[in-house]
Amino acid sequence: MTNAEDITRLRRAKTEEIVAKYQKITPPIIPAVGNREKPRLTVDFGSSPIELILERDELYMSAALELAALASELGEVPVGALIVRGSNIIAADFNGRETVKSALYHAETAAIASACSVLGGWRLPGCELFVTLEPCVMCAGAIVSARIPRVVYGASDPKAGAYGGKFDLRDAGLNHTPTVIPGIKGEEASRQLRNFFTERRR
Questions:
Q1: Distance in angstroms (rounded) separating the CA atoms of residues 64 and 171
Q2: Which of 18, 26, 75, 114 could form a disulfide with 91 if both were Cys (CB 3.0 to 4.6 A apart)?
Q3: 51 an active-site residue?
Q4: Which stretch of DSSP H or E encloses residue 85?
């Protein structure tokens, strides 16, 4: 890549490829998020068996892992994230602090900003965030601000995780507390991170 515009085009094209790939796969269940005009603020799986919920979570985490792999190819810490509502992938992105030159460009915050733009508002009712690494305090704050009801992550982060890794923002008594599902494809996400940092040390 020769300049920032080339990198931006590459990021967008590769991300769109992954989204298109997973959008064609029908998830095993579709959560009840209300109608299009008035989606529910929560994510409701009704009486769906836990096995199907897990299968669905793993499907979308696989997409997030592919996004994280793109980050690694660009020299970024491999973290990928996507926003899902029902069976639709609303937005997707991956770490870009080095290539975009912004401390704010975490996978989660980038995906949240994109989803807000797509849906036309700062609230993301009925949406879920899937991310390969436990969100940090900045990203957890963005999740609260966007009122995202459900967060699914892969690897725990004992140094900076805000959902139990380092501390738990859910204990802060804020005006919104998401449901958090940890450890989905966690070993795969952890291995991806370990391999990245091992390679960087060589």
A1: 27
A2: 114
A3: no
A4: strand 80-85
